[in-house]
Amino acid sequence: MAKLFDFTIKNGAAGGFGMFSAAHFAWLAVLLAAGGGVCLAYKKADENSRRVIRRAAAWGALGMELLRAALLFAAGEYNLGRLPLHLCAMAVYICALHAWRVGALTGQFLYAFCMPGAVFALIFPDWGYYPALHFMSASSFVIHGLIVTYVVMQVAARDIVPDVKKCPQCLGLMLALALPVYIFDRITGTNYMFLNWPSPGSPLEWFAFLGSPGFVLGYLPILAAVWAVMYYPFRRTGENKKQ
Predict the structure, then answer these.
(1) N or C: which end of the chain has fewer CB within 10 A?
(2) Does an H or E element contain 208, and which?
(3) Which is nearest to 128 in space by CA: 26, 24, 31?
(4) d(C-alpha 7, C-alpha 130), whole Å
(5) Rounded Cα gap, residues 75 and 183, in angstroms
(6) d(C-alpha 78, C-alpha 67), whole Å
(7) Residue 197: exposed, middle, or buried by beta-carbon count in 10 A (0-12, 13-18, 19+)?
(8) What is the pTM of this model?
């Protein structure tokens, strides 16, 4: 049991589940099955039940995030690299805010940036140096899975209807969040939002030859390709029902 909460494990240590391993794919399969079930239940639920499901997913992710921070702090391992400055950590709080008070731009931002960011994190996890059943692995998979499920279930039920016309506003909000994080990264040598160096094994590594911060330009074609896929099914949608 002690090994499940060994927070002294560092990147590069032996014994991690590793990217694209059997354990990695097993976690993805579990999340896909569980998330799919929640999405179906949400789509069939009435408005009151949907509100309960939204809050359970969003506040469950928030509770897990806060519990993880508390355990790291108690173990003396909460440091400069553990701050909630990654996009997915911010997404946890944005989901909680959206579940409490649904807002138009918030819903669009969750779809445009937070959901695909969480998907990329699940496919290219930067916590693969932990064992598959370590608390940090489990909490990371669950938190990111809840972010994806929170958004997808509402899109499936048309409680969030993606609107490509809102992309410029979402991009502006993203830049407003990223700029201070980038400055913080440069000053402290951290790598929040992966703005100082590419996440190992991710598509951003294709642009590593541009150096730092040049590789950040790689976000542009990646984002364009991802958005083309994400928004194509909604190219003829009208006004959002509720966001």
Answers:
(1) N
(2) none
(3) 24
(4) 9
(5) 29
(6) 12
(7) middle
(8) 0.94
Q: Mention every residue, 6+ apart, whose C-beta is less than 8 A from residue 192.
A: 83, 85, 86, 181, 184, 185
CB 71 within 8 A of CB 179: no
Q: How far is CA 94 from CA 84, 87, 195, 208, 243, in A?
A: 12, 10, 21, 30, 13
Burial class (CB in 10 A: 0-12, 13-18, 19+), 91: buried
Residue 71 dihedral angles phi and psi, to the nearest 5°: -65, -40
Instruction: Name which of 120, 111, 103 is nearest 193 in CA terms.
Output: 120
Average pLDDT on 65-69 reads: 97
Greatest Cα-to-Cα distance within the chain, rounded to the nearest angstrom: 54
- Nearest CA among 85, 88, 84 for reference residue 180: 85
**Residue range 26-45: mean pLDDT, rounded:** 98
